[in-house]
Amino acid sequence: DDFTDVLRRIERADADAVLVLLVGSDAVRFNRAFAAAGLDARCLRLSTLMDESMLLGSGPGATVDLYSTAGFFASLADGHSMDFHGRYAARFGADAPVPGSLGESCYEGVLLLAALIERARSLDVSAIGAAADHVRYEGPRGLLGLDGRHVRQRIYLAEADGLDFTVLAQLDSPQGLP
After folding, report:
1. Of 61, 54, 69, whose CA–CA distance to 169 is shortest?
2. How far apart are CA 146 and CA 116, in angstroms?
3. Among 86, 56, 65, 53, which Cα is nearest to 20's?
């Protein structure tokens, strides 16, 4: 709960950057304490686990020089993500909370499981595992596939911009995408 010691160590180390691996309210409290200590003026943060709800909870005053990486951001404006948001709004209404990166990730997990089951034509775990290297599916992140039982996908680098993320760069899989 108290980040005083950690923040002192960061300050004494004269770090240029901090890798933040906190989630939920811990991430929110850390970001607020980091900014309150004035560290955001001289040290950037990268979180590979930051989503839109944690950004909102942290507040715009606590997210200066905060970066995140993910396979999806709610602010991403490509055809696949726009289609996803459009279908979501049609189903739940235009005033429904926008699904962020964690919600979208759960949805992708369900799509992947459905593709695995369809490919295996079985609910048997062994059959699903055997089908894993041959699965491709289309979702909010575009066309994805498994390679060695790992998802090959684009990863984006985004910067916190107030209460939203601005996508700065797209990093493609070294082997290319399916």
Report:
1. 69
2. 10
3. 65
Tell me which H or E stretch contains 20: strand 17-20
pLDDT band at 171 (very low <50, low <70, confident <90, very high): confident
Q: What would the pLDDT profile of 129-144 be if each residue is shown by its tens digit? A: 998 888 899 999 988 8
Could you identify the residue written with the tokens 């590979």?
48
pTM: 0.86
Alpha-carbon distance 171 to 105, whole Å? 18
Q: Which domains, ranges and CATH numbers included, belong to the chain?
A: 4-71+154-171 (3.40.50.2300), 79-152 (3.40.50.2300)
Q: Which of 63, 88, 57 lies closest to 74 in space, CA to CA?
A: 88
Name which of 58, 27, 28 is nearest 164 in CA terms. Answer: 58
